[in-house]
């Protein structure tokens, strides 16, 4: 048994020193306190790192088919009244809509930005949205009344359908008069809502294509009279997810002494965001290139703001992840062991330095 016990003790990696060889010093205490502070600090850092969520990006070929592309729009045109502008869309499938969009509000504003009234553009093609119009119209009207910025005379007692029909088929002279009065009063227009378009390349634009040639020429004798200055409050292609940045949000393009057409070329990347809880959010992100072309006197095209979009064949999957618990314990062991080893070496160096200084001082005292 004695030989077996001796052989087993020889494998011990943690030998114990004799009590008379273990000396406690003030320098060792200082190094110990420093090591404890370092351990606690590193432990808290590793714990916060473990509890934080990482975001992983993966790319793959986009295989989605038959889905709609939602376009969220929120823009202000401070120099164009709502009666003059229209929101139009056209895509590669051949679908072309002029001043007829799903769930789009056009709100009249004065030069100070206060709301004067609104016009709701119902979709004349897709009738399934009709049931939601009355609800959204009533909610928006009540909100404006509560804010104190709503003026009933802006509707003149007519329903939105009657107003829209009157604009399209009513007396052109009255339409010209109304738009000219709005221009004299420095009215602007805020356009916001959601467009549901086909998932193919196309464009949507804010222009005066909703007016007849006669009305447009009566209101704006010269092309340079059309001012398409605009502020983009929000432009996105689906719901937001944490960390998403839409490059056109907050964009201001104000024209002073010139007129022209703005074109934004957008590259849309289909994106799916997966939350840590397991929920998934399909959306899109995009990049943009901007181009401005000044209006020429001899041109016949009215200034407008175009958003030309195309879809990327590559889809991005963004996934939230949390680190494995085994990684946490591995890093904690490395922190504790590494700190203990470093402070041990530091303690030996400090102890030897103090001994050298004490021996040097003793030698000088003996010589004296």
TrEMBL record:
The question of whether Membrane is a record keyword is answered with yes
Q: Where in the cell is it found?
A: Membrane
InterPro entries the record matches: Erv (IPR045888), Erv_C (IPR012936), Erv_N (IPR039542)
Task: Give a Gene Ontology cellular component term annotated to this protein.
Answer: membrane
According to its UniProt record, where is this protein mainly located?
Answer: membrane
**Pfam families reported for this sequence:** COPIIcoated_ERV (PF07970), ERGIC_N (PF13850)
* Bilayer-crossing regions: 25-44
- Kindly give the membrane topology term recorded for this protein: Multi-pass membrane protein
Q: Where is the Endoplasmic reticulum vesicle transporter N-terminal domain?
A: 8-97
Where does the Endoplasmic reticulum vesicle transporter C-terminal domain lie? 174-347
Q: Which UniProt keywords apply?
A: Membrane, Transmembrane, Transmembrane helix
Family according to the record: Belongs to the ERGIC family.
In its UniProt entry, what is this protein called? Answer: Endoplasmic reticulum-Golgi intermediate compartment protein 3
Q: What is the lineage of its organism?
A: Eukaryota, Viridiplantae, Streptophyta, Embryophyta, Marchantiophyta
């Amino acid at each position: 048994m004695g030989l077996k016990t001796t052989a087993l003790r020889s494998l011990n990696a943690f030998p114990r020193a004799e009590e008379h060889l273990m000396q406690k010093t003030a320098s060792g205490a200082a190094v110990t306190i420093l090591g404890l502070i370092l351990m606690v600090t590193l432990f808290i850092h590793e714990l916060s790192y473990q509890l934080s969520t990482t975001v992983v990006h993966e790319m793959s070929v986009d295989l989605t088919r038959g889905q709609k592309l939602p376009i969220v729009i929120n823009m202000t045109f401070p120099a164009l009244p709502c009666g003059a502008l229209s929101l139009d869309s056209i895509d590669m499938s051949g679908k072309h809509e002029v001043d007829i969009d799903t769930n789009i509000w056009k709100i009249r504003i004065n030069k100070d930005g206060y709301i004067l009234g609104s016009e709701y553009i119902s979709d004349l093609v897709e009738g399934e949205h009709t049931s939601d119009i009355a609800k959204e119209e009533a909610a928006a009207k009540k909100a404006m009344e509560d804010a104190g910025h709503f003026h009933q005379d802006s509707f003149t007692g007519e329903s939105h359908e009657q107003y829209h029909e009157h604009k399209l088929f009513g007396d052109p002279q009255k339409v010209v008069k109304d738009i000219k009065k709005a221009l004299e009063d420095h009215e602007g227009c805020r356009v916001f809502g959601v467009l549901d378009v086909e998932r193919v390349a196309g464009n949507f634009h804010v222009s005066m294509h909703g007016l007849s040639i006669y009305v447009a020429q009566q209101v704006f004798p010269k092309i340079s009279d059309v001012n398409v200055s605009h502020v983009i409050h929000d432009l996105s292609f689906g719901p937001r997810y944490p960390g998403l940045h839409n490059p056109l949000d907050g964009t201001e393009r104000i024209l002073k002494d010139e007129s022209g057409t703005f074109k934004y070329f957008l590259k849309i990347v289909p994106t799916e965001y997966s939350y840590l809880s397991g929920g998934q959010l399909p959306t899109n992100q995009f990049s943009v290139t901007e181009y401005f072309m000044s209006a020429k006197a001899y041109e016949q095209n009215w200034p407008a703001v175009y958003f030309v979009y195309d879809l990327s064949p590559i889809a991005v999957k963004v996934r939230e992840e949390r680190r494995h618990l085994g990684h946490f314990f591995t890093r904690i062991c490395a922190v504790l062991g590494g700190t203990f080893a470093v402070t041990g070496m530091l303690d030996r160096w400090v102890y030897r330095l103090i001994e050298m200084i004490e021996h040097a001082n003793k030698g000088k005292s003996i010589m004296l």
